[in-house]
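TODO from last week: model SAUR-like auxin-responsive protein family.
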Amino acid sequence: MIRFKTIVFQVKRVLDKKISRLRHIINVRKGHFAVYVGEDEMETKRFVVPISYLNHPLFQALLRKAEDEFGTDHQRTYLTIPCAKDVFLGITSRLKRNKFISTESN
């Protein structure tokens, strides 16, 4: 009976982990994607950003930094950008302002 409880506990733990990962994938609005940001793997923070950021040179520089650090063949199942969170927030706020300005001027 103890072995059965141990197996059930382990299965529940694995399922909880998988469900947690799926929630991160599911909770992304259309036209956006999730990215994890942080210099330390244990302290990454998840951000959801518009797909349009992929076309901007500043964001592309962040992606190149991730490619330089992790390569293109790595074990992670999610996009991680290895930079300080405040740097990422500065860049994304700048991109957001630029989008707003270019939208207003049209």
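Done. DSSP finds three helices and three strands in the chain.
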